[in-house]
Amino acid sequence: MEQRIPAKSRKKPDFQVFGKIFDPVIPGIVTAGLCSGFGALIAQFVPGYLEHPASAAVYWLLSLVSTAFLSFMPAWVGYSACRESGGTAILGGMLGMITGLEGVNDLAQAVGLFNAADPAASILCSGRGGVLAAILGGWLLARLEGWLHRRMPKSADMVLTPFCAVLLVLVPYLLLVMPLTGLISTALCDGVRLVCTSEHPLVRILAGYGCAAVFLVAVMMGMQYAFVALYSMELDSYGYVTLFPTLAMAGAGQVGAGLALLLKAHRTGNTRFAGVIGAT
Description:
Largest sheet: none
Distance between the termini: 46 Å
Strand content: under 5%
Shape: globular
Structural class: mainly alpha
Number of helices: 11
Helix content: over 70%
């Protein structure tokens, strides 16, 4: 049985908790994204790639890697979220894995929440809520598990506490958490996509300016992990990420502007201004 985190250590800054949840997931996001990108390049630039054994084998290997991560990303996030909230990590992983199972569609159809004509428009369907649902579900599970641990007889604690915790959380998780977080994640991802792919130059300029203004400040304050949740939702919803390249380019532009000011300050002999820029 996994060692639970003591109560005193559970009090962490919100963005630090986001970092602890997503840090183990970031290498998977990068690997899955690269494999998906290389697979797309093969499909676009190699005519008849599925007809040649070598190119087909490489394409399907890359697809396996990207699909494996994307299919079970809520499980990895739920595992980390439950662990960082002081619960048993594997239970959070189970809850996150349930999120993407096809059985969720059967349950949704049984309770009248599934739209067979357009499954993506269903109130409840497989994958609804994605990583947001897994984070909130892992937190709820850890809270309930801790409450049960304090009240369950020691002789039955190991068996009944995880059993009761999962079953008691599963119903509100499926009927409330997944539909609500699904609406939130869809709205956020659509908003990010509209901004990043807007046909109006002014919108793109303002978005780039906003990113350049806040991203590096957020990094210095340790708040960049708030963006990782958006990266994960974009990857989960669309299979690619547009926000991170935008933020990375905005940050690079801000660093370049800072270096230009530093060189100009050195050339004009403004040591005080150069010292301020060098310190930052």
